[in-house]
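Please, does this match?
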Amino acid sequence: MSQTHLGYKDRVNLGSYYTPPKFVKLAWKLIEPYIDSQTTIIDTACGYGDFLKNRGQLNTIGCDIDEDAIVIAKKNTDKVQFFQTNSLHNVSRGKFGIPQQSTKLIVVGNPPYNDKTSLIRHKIKNVDFDVDVDIKSRDLGISFLRSYNKLEADFICVLHPLSYLIKQTNFKHLKEFTAHYKLIDGILISSGEFPESATHTPFPIIIALYQRDTLGMEYSDIRSFAFRTVGGNGFCLSDFEYITNYITKYPSKQHQVIPDNSLFFWTMRDINALKRNRTFVQNYSSNT
């Protein structure tokens, strides 16, 4: 159900976007084999409660910082314990009444992601609520993944940008999470499938299933992982050649001798860099 009570600015800041039912169904298909009568299901950013299904589990918990969303969620589903709370502050099982042991905990949902350093809609992005220091990140989505580790969830099935995993810099930011979880399944979808984001440039999203594991995972595991697509195709990073193996992607920061009366041009730049910099400059710098 679309988050109709929120304006555009609030949807961006809270990362509150409607998840199409077909993706909710896919997420549940991934976790159903692991649900038993002693399982607790929790969605810590539940919105209107679309992910809160009853499949014979012991407890179902829905949480959201948005009071209006919780009111609507209570009308949409029953047999759910709801908390109107900031799920990123004072994170613990006790906060939600979950026993520390003896209960299998599965997290499911589509948590917010909101990278404040991105130039896309950056002028209206603002996170003005408390986040625990040990899970705080420039991106809400990464903070939520870190929070699941604090809850010591046994399984996690959530939607998040694929870039969290395949971009090595982002993967390093998840070290507290990746030290305790391994990816066991992943289905790739497009952000263009989400009605509220269909007008923006689409990017890949993964419906990711993680299992708690003492060995965790390394970036090499992601490179060799066989991702699936909704169309039934496979995708593996190690199957591709990368341009960085052949050319220098970023300018050297070391001083180089440059002839007089030269123009400098750097061709390998991402979208953010293109918006920040001019194409031609008169003086050499680390960006040319």
